[in-house]
Amino acid sequence: MPIFEYECRKCGNLFEELVMSSSQEVTCPSCGSADIDKLISAIAKKCRGCSSSGGASCGPT
Ligand SMILES: [Zn+2]
Q: Which residues of the chain form beta strands (DSSP E)?
């Protein structure tokens, strides 16, 4: 699942959001602001393309 971590620039709230498409608009659940930063979290280190192949092959290819 493509879950990304965000930090709100307005109120500093940290939150995670399930993003289904790159065009999806993400807003802060605390203040509703769309002025947010996407963070590189530990989640991003996981293989993103193996969800349908059992997760056995997470090589750099
Ligand atoms: Zn906020």
A: 3-8, 14-18, 36-39
